[in-house]
Amino acid sequence: xxxxxxxxxxxxxxxxxxxxxxxxxxxxxxxxxxxxxxxxxxxxxxx
Amino acid sequence: xxxxxxxxxxxxxxxxxxxxxxxxxxxxxxxxxxxxxxxxxxxxxxxxxxxxxxxxxxxxxxxxxxxxxxxxxxxxxxxxxxxxxxxxxxxxxxxxxxxxxxxxxxxxxxxxxxxxxxxxxxxxxxxxxxxxxxxxxxxxxxxxxxxxxxxxxxxxxxxxxxxxxxxxxxxxxxxxxxxxxxxxxxxxxxxxxxxxxxxxxxxxxxxxxxxxxxxxxxxxxxxxxxxxxxxxxxxxxxxxxxxxxxxxxxxxxxxxxxxxxxxxxxxxxxxxxxxxxxxxxxxxxxxxxxxxxxxxxxxxxxxxxxxxxxxxxxxxxxxxxxxxxxxxxxxxxxxxxxxxxxxxxxxx
Lengths: 47, 348
Ligand code: FES
Prior knowledge:
Chain A is mainly α. Chain A is built from one helix and no strands.
């Protein structure tokens, strides 16, 4: 790899990594919570 | 090497590399499908196809993660240099696996007779304004397109047609493809499958690639500042024994160009670190069958004069070397390509 490539690589990689990392973090935060467990079946006497 | 584009010669190491690669991929896909069927047997054809989509999708993702990790790993630890060799085949196979992932996705729609709904999904323009809900398949297609471009231009015809520097710039798009794949998974399966393994696998792989690049880049930054020179401008490369036999150490000239100092038994010589094929890092290669062999695709050069063995015609710049006070020193002023410049250590 020539110097110019190395320098471009060093600049491109962190910029891309920050962008993708931010998007990844956002998609994790905005991810829908797992579906709640179904409530336990009601006891006969409570009907 | 420049004869009829037969640049990349097959040798035993390449066959072994490819065999291991193919066996690894087959094993992964078969194991993924078998385990998935055991845990939750598919109830119908679309569910069976869905398992294949996941098997090939995760396989392509891990392959891309490995490809991008090999470079920095090889810089951090010489053991990984053997993985650099033939990385091109690794890349082409990754494209094929990603293509199969996309193919099964289309088959999934077809199996349900709902192929038009794929088109509807991709042309629902209002979704393009959303973050969660963005048509993630489009991101996947974009990544696949880049992988296709890289696989299609991996042949030496394109290298010669585009010239090595342009070719190298083009192939840096692999980083963009990886970023797109991460987003494809994050906005796709991760959003509608609550399996905690998906975000863990995604974040861990991404972090691994990022951290390896940061650490390797940090190390190399120090290297690019240059190797200290003696009073007369010659650069110290260390004691002869510190240069691995049939391997090299890399020193940096004041202008920043790297020089590979090789040792083959008692013979020591220095050449430019840039392979004339695609500027691969020659100093990370080894001496195989008496020739310096580039770690990227196996082009070979004689240590004695930097010339490729006949019938090939490439010549690399060599550098004068000497031994002073038990230390190998290199003159950073290059000699014309193909100039014999090695020295021999006195017999022990
Ligand atoms: S053989 Fe391809 S870069 Fe050296």
